[in-house]
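Input for the complex:
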Amino acid sequence: MAFIDIKDVCFSYDLEAGVKKDVLHHVSLQVERGEFVALLGHNGCGKSTLSKLFNGMLTAGSGQVLIDGLDAGLEENQLEVRRRVGLVLQNPDNQLVAGIVEEDVAFGPENLGVPPEEIRQRVDAALKAVDMYHYREHAPHKLSGGQKQRVAIAGIIAMETSCIVLDEPTAMLDPRGREEVMETITRLNKEKGITIVLITHYMDEAVRAGRVVVMDDGRILMDGAPREVFGQVERLKRHDLDVPQATELCYRLQAAGVNLPAIPLSVEECVGMFREMLGGRADERMDS
Amino acid sequence: MSEWILETKNLTYQYSAGTPFEKTAVEDVSIRIGKGEFIGVIGHTGSGKSTLIQLLNGLLRPTRGQVLLNGRDIWQEPKKIRAVRFQVGMVFQYPEYQLFEETVLKDLMFGPKNMGLSDEEAAARAREAAAFTGLRPELLEKSPFELSGGEKRRAAIAGVIAMDPEVLILDEPTAGLDPRGRDVLLAQITQYHKKRGNTVLLVSHSMEDIGRTAGRLLVMDHSRAAMLAPTKEVFAKGEELEKMGLRVPQITKIVQELRALGCPVDPSTLTVDDALKQLIPYFKQKLPGKEAGPHAV
Ligand SMILES: Nc1ncnc2c1ncn2[C@@H]1O[C@H](COP(=O)(O)OP(=O)(O)OP(=O)(O)O)[C@@H](O)[C@H]1O
Ligand SMILES: Nc1ncnc2c1ncn2[C@@H]1O[C@H](COP(=O)(O)OP(=O)(O)OP(=O)(O)O)[C@@H](O)[C@H]1O
Ligand SMILES: [Mg+2]
Ligand SMILES: [Mg+2]
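Predicted:
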């Protein structure tokens, strides 16, 4: 049984005067325990909406959302679902609730009924994982944008849910911070087996997932390994997405008639390929 | 007078000055920005970028030092500081919180109306600005709260552009936009900058975006201005940038590695297009297909 099992889900927001906005159209998606899935798609395609169905913040209009076998649409399952799925919201300001950073991070575990001594440990560990331990006694609203984002992530890490859904967690981070968050996520996935769903507009982050799901206008458009999905450069671009710069470069080199052994997905892969291709020969040229 | 539109002299800002929580966010920054320049502002999280730009448009008052706009200290007459905010328009980080009216259109009209324009003029400005940022017209009658993250972003940017400021400051405007939205918005900002000849400051954590737009870069590091130099010069200093938590654009990293392998490519190449112009001929000559015998090295 899949850990997240979304069956034929439709969702609409109720606008005033009985008007509805249909956002999700018959979406089905299964995520296995321990997977690392990147969720991509144009602005407004329904990623955040879908992510809120995962932890019961929103309830499907029709169809079913099963989390670890529990129907997330049922009121009585709310707490159990939230024990299993932690959601880092798109905007950290929506998540930060307390007046002090460490209280904020403690909020989630407290709500889950974790004993106080353990909360202390979890909070410290989570703040260290995002490199914000130093700021534990600061006021969240006085932090910079990127610092708030890290605290919001720490808050979810501290809940130790078996699945973490992150809605654009690196949107406000500097390059090193992004790398650190990606490393933290990867580590939680690899070492603790935590199921990760990462919503992102950064293609170079998505290539690090084990699986990439692309949404378009409330439907699932593509679903596969990063190499499969990012091999379809034109198709992604038609749907407002992109590929990493390394992929773009090599794809266009190939289109221009340059023979390449593969299309790389990252800078490292790309450089490695070039090194193999012209290591020896390029050196000769330098000498001449 | 000078052609410097903005100048700071020993600019310093402390949050909660004189309390145990005192925090120096901007320290001794002296920079000059020319009329019509497109400046990229980069720096690690918490380096002081947002604080600095709020000093530039008079939202924060310096603890020490000065901000000169067209050669005049903006705090010379504190009562006139509002006028500075119209001249130096600012799109905040998380600008979605600047949206508070009943409809998106009303929100976009707010700034122009505040400047004294009539409803009609304000609406015209609002529609123009919406089109400029790629906000679909049917969204104008909606409540801002019904928009997606990316749509709210466009609306907030449109709200500032509707005021047609002389200096436009954007604090991470593309964070949260999908790749196409990011490309379109950057192209539109670049176009707007070219057409109006106004000055633009773009704060961003995307080295790729900065690399293809800005003429000069201001690098903030631990509250100080560490560099202010042409974009290519800054991105030639990859190691220094790494120490500051920054990186060079991915494409620049690739060409720099290629150069180390002996490929004669410009190490300060900042865009994929530019890289291709150099690499297609290079690789074709270097690695001809087996059938392309005559060109083999
Ligand atoms: N509370 C709401 N009420 C009404 N409509 C909403 C609400 N929240 C979102 N929508 C609409 O639902 C659609 C999907 O929004 P959602 O936030 O899920 O998109 P998204 O894929 O997360 O986009 P982004 O990449 O911009 O964050 C959008 O068209 C948006 O305008
Ligand atoms: N209202 C405030 N009160 C106290 N300290 C603050 C306040 N706002 C920001 N700071 C602190 O000032 C420093 C600079 O913050 P600023 O927001 O200018 O950084 P930034 O470069 O814009 O960061 P980011 O890239 O994360 O947006 C940070 O250490 C931050 O914690
Ligand atoms: Mg979203
Ligand atoms: Mg900032």
